[in-house]
Amino acid sequence: WLLRSIDGIPALSRIDVERVLQARKEKPQAVPLALGLGGVADLLIALDRAFIFDSVREANLAREGGALAVYAVRGRWRPERLVQWLPEQKAAIDDGRPADLSRLPEMLPDHVYVLLGRDNLFPYRIEYRREARAKRAVAGDRCFVSFDFVDVVFNRPVDERQFRFAQGTYPVVDETDGYLVRQRADR
């Protein structure tokens, strides 16, 4: 379920998880699961399919109550995925030459960082980043999307009532078909 408010007008949509799971059983490679459906594990699998993680350093993640010791793991695009976004650079990418990442669509990162707890390897933060390349930009890179997992508790029972949703009087738009099409197109 997703409740959005556009100009103060609420809109409720849903994705039928049972249909997505059935489609995934029928064609596992065609229908990956997004964070909301496949959890953290499938998000990490999707990152691994898109990026090569080849740089690791120790760091600390600022948290309420003190810093958390983490490994900062940097990922760069896998060549086969990069070619999907930069088809005009296929020859250079296939030859192992550097791609012009400034040509990536603005909404895409050119690298990612995953901050893994040193004690448990849990991904407490995932950052999608882009190098600053504009003439007026500050040197370095910028994080434009991040996921933070805070107050993480392992192995605690969860009351199933937390997962029940009452739609109330909102009209519902079923987005399952569109979701399945987008997931297949992303492969």
Describe this structure in words.
With 187 residues, this protein is α+β, with helices and mostly antiparallel strands. It has 5 helices and 8 strands, in the order ββααββααββββα. Helix content is 26%, strand content 34%. A 5-stranded antiparallel sheet has the order 3-4-5-6-7. Strands 1-2-8 form a 3-stranded mixed sheet, with no helix packed on it. The longest helix is centred in the first third of the chain and has 16 residues, at 35-50. It starts with a strand and ends with a helix. The mean pLDDT is 84.
Q: What share of residues are in beta strands?
A: 25-35%
- Separation of termini? 24 Å
Low-confidence stretches: none
Overall 3D shape: globular
Specify the number of helices.
5
Structural class: alpha+beta
Q: Return Rg in Å.
A: 20 Å
How confident overall, as mean pLDDT? 84
The helix fraction, in percent, is 25-40%
Order of H and E elements: EEHHEEHHEEEEH
Identify the strand order in the major beta sheet: 3-4-5-6-7
Number of beta-strand segments = 8
Task: Produce a short descriptive summary.
With 187 residues, this protein is α+β, with helices and mostly antiparallel strands. The chain has helices spanning 17-26, 35-50, 79-85, 90-94, 176-185; strands spanning 2-6, 9-14, 51-63, 66-77, 111-117, 123-131, 141-148, 172-174. The two termini are 24 Å apart.
Task: List the topology elements.
Elements lengths: L1 E5 L2 E6 L2 H10 L8 H16 E13 L2 E12 L1 H7 L4 H5 L16 E7 L5 E9 L9 E8 L23 E3 L1 H10 L2
Parallel strand pairs: 2-8
Antiparallel strand pairs: 1-2, 3-4, 4-5, 5-6, 6-7
